[in-house]
Design goal:
about 300 residues, mainly beta, Immunoglobulin-like, five-stranded antiparallel β-sheet, four-stranded antiparallel β-sheet, 20 strands
Length: about 300
């Protein structure tokens, strides 16, 4: 089911490209009971690791309950360029107690993504767990505006959670916070990272909302390609109105000069897509802007051609 973030549980947000229907069982084969908690379409009849994201397969689907997240900032009024203390507390949905036990996801207990509403600022960091179960990190927001703070965490008693929160940064105490949507233009040209160039290729060339799009990233070299935080790549996608947020990993990757993602964009919008890869110890972050059409818009374009 594909829904905007505001209408989703975190478990639904986590894997927007997954269809949750049970796959057909091949003739003569029993049910595939071992499931990847991050990619439920990856199944096996024996324990092991997910070939896509590296997570340990679990027996059956874990509890899909939504875990509330409390985010507090110190100071409460955030100013651009000033250090702010972020504190995250994940709560048990049944007891309300702070969760203290977590699974490691891609070599970390907590992944935090921050994107500005104009989609010009992107950050991927890892808050540090405290003895009481909370996670702390200091952050400096570069300019006034609205920011989406996205937490990616896996409580042992539940399932992987992707939870967005919103913070507002004002230039001065009485100034309004700029809330304009990002003004993106299509950009799928060759992108230059720290030590790697990347070219995006789409199939179909003009993605349609609600249908699968194959997204390839092709690099200028495979020399020195390394896994980054347990995966060949991390992808974050945000719509130009900051409503839809997707965290993905490649469906096909082996350290060569290209990798494939399969994405279902929820709506007809402009999306900004950040991809992070590591080569020779250096993390490369590149971004492209992808316009997504309705089926009617796509049909009109095809007829016009």
């Amino acid at each position: 089911m594909i829904l905007p973030v505001a209408a989703q549980t975190p478990a639904q947000q986590k894997r927007l490209d997954v269809q949750y229907a049970e796959p057909p069982t091949p003739p003569g084969q029993g049910a595939l009971d071992y499931v990847c908690p991050m990619d439920p379409d990856v199944r096996s009849d024996k324990p092991g690791k997910c070939p896509r994201c590296g997570m340990t397969l679990v027996l059956g689907i874990p509890d899909q309950s939504e875990f509330p997240l409390e985010l507090t900032t110190t100071p409460a009024d955030i100013r651009p360029g000033e250090k702010v203390h972020l504190k995250f507390a994940l709560k048990d949905p049944k007891t309300g107690a702070i969760v203290k036990n977590f699974q490691v996801v891609h070599e970390r207990l907590f992944h935090m993504f921050i994107v500005s509403s104009d989609l010009q600022y992107f950050l991927h960091e890892h808050p540090v767990m405290q003895p009481d179960g909370t996670f702390l990190i200091d952050q400096v927001f570069p300019k006034a505006g609205m920011y989406r703070v996205v937490s990616d965490v896996y409580p042992t008693s539940g399932s992987p959670q992707l939870i967005p929160k919103t913070v507002f940064v004002a230039a001065n105490p009485n100034d309004p916070v700029p809330l304009e949507e990002a003004k993106l233009v299509p950009d799928m040209t060759l992108q230059h990272g720290e030590n790697t160039d990347a070219q995006v290729v789409l199939d179909p060339v003009k993605p349609i909302a609600g249908t699968k799009t194959h997204v390839w990233f092709k690099f200028n070299t495979a020399d020195g390609m390394e896994k980054y935080l347990g995966a060949w790549a991390h992808m974050v996608i945000v719509s130009d109105d900051s409503i839809d947020l997707i965290h993905e990993h490649p469906i096909i990757a082996d350290g060569s000069d290209q990798m494939q993602f399969d994405i279902i964009f929820p709506r007809a919008r402009m999306y900004r897509m950040w991809v992070q890869i590591q080569r020779k110890g250096i993390v490369n972050t590149v971004a492209v802007n992808i316009p997504v059409l309705t089926l009617e818009q796509a049909a009109g374009i095809n007829i016009g051609q």
